[in-house]
Amino acid sequence: MIEILIPLLAAAVQSGTPILYATLGEIFTEKSGVLNLGVEGAMIVGALTGFVVAKVTGNPSVAFVVAGLSGTLAVSIHGIVCLWFQGNQVVSGLALTILGTGLANYLGTSLVGQSAPGFGPMPFPVLSEIPVVGPVFFNQDPLVYITYIIPPLMWYFFNNTRYGLGLRAAGEYPEAATAAGLNVQAYRWVGILVGGFFMGLGGAYLSLAYTHLWTNSLTGGRGWIAVALVIFAFWRPGRAVFGAYLFGGIMAMQLRMQASGTALPSSLLLMLPYTLTIIVLVFSSWWKGATEEPAALGVNVEPTE
Where are the chain's structural domains? Predict the structure, then answer.
C-alpha cells in the first residue's frame, strides 16, 4: 500500500507546486488590500516567457527568474488601473486574465509541441533517504525545494518586520496607516509587484519543470484555483501549502486514473479539481473563525499628495 501511495504523494507535491507559487503571490497582494483576479493571466505570461528564455539561452535558472519578472510586468498593468486611476479591482483583474491568456496563446502558437531545457529531480542528500518522507518531499526538483522556504519567510515578514506590518496595515486600516505616516500606495505597489513575481514563477514551473513542453492554455485554470485557495488558507502562507498539495493530489490522481483506463468518463475526471474548488469555497464561507482576511481588501485608496 505504501509503495502505491508514495508515487502519488510525490506527484501531489509536484502538481501542487505551481498552484502554491501562485497562491503565495496572491496572498502577498491581498495582504496589501488589493484584490487581483488576474492570477491566471500572470501565470501564463510567466510560463511562456520562461519557456522562450530557456529555449533561447539554454539556461533554465535565468529563465525562471525572468519569468517571475514578466509576471511582475504583467500585474503592473493592474496596479496602474487600480492605484493610479482608481479603477475597479475586480474588472481590472478579469481583464488581465483575458489579456494574458490571449497574448500567450497567440504568441505561443508557433511553439506548441516544442521542448526547452528545464529542471529535473535532484535528490536532496541524506534527507531523500528517509523512508516515505524522503521520496515524497526530498526527491523533487530544486523549484519545489524553494517553496519549502518561502511560506515561513512570508510568515516572518508579515508578523515580525516593520515593512511586513506596514504592508498589512495598508490592507487592514489604510486610513490609520496614512495617519501614522505610511505611504499606503507604495505598500500596495509592493504587494502587487511582488505577488506578480510569484505568479510568474508558478507559471514558469509548469513549462520548465512540470512539462518541459509548450502548449496553449498550459495553466489550465490553476490561477483560479489559487484565488480560491487564498480564501481556503485564510490568508495564511502555511495553510496554503496544505491546500496546494491537496489540489495537486486531486490532479495527480485524475491523471493516473485516466492513464489506467478507468471506465469513468474523462470529462468527469477533468471536473474533479474544480469541483473541489467549489467545495473549498463553501467550506471556507461556512468556517468563519480565525480568518486573516484584510479588512480593506478590494477598497481603493486615494493617492496622498
Answer: 2-286
Reported as a single tens digit per residue, the pLDDT across 237-275 is 999 999 899 888 888 887 777 666 666 676 776 777 778
Q: How far apart are CA 95 and CA 91, in angstroms?
A: 6
Written in H, E and C, the secondary structure of the chain is CHHHHHHHHHHHHHHHHHHHHHHHHHHHHHHCCCCCCCHHHHHHHHHHHHHHHHHHHCCHHHHHHHHHHHHHHHHHHHHHHHHHCCCCHHHHHHHHHHHHHHHHHHHHHHHCCCECCCCCCCCCCCHHHCCCHHHHHCCCCHHHHHHHHHHHHHHHHHHHCHHHHHHHHHHHCHHHHHHCCCCHHHHHHHHHHHHHHHHHHHHHHHHHHHCCECCCCCCCCHHHHHHHHHHHCCCCHHHHHHHHHHHHHHHHHHHHHHHCCCCCCHHHHHHHHHHHHHHHHHHHHHCCCCCCCCCCCCCCCCCCC
pLDDT digits (tens, 9 = 90+) for 141-154: 999 999 999 999 99
Which residue in the block uniquely carries the three cell numbers 471506465?
Answer: 263
* Single pTM value for the model: 0.94
Topology of domain 2-286 in CATH is ABC transporter involved in vitamin B12 uptake, BtuC (1.10.3470)
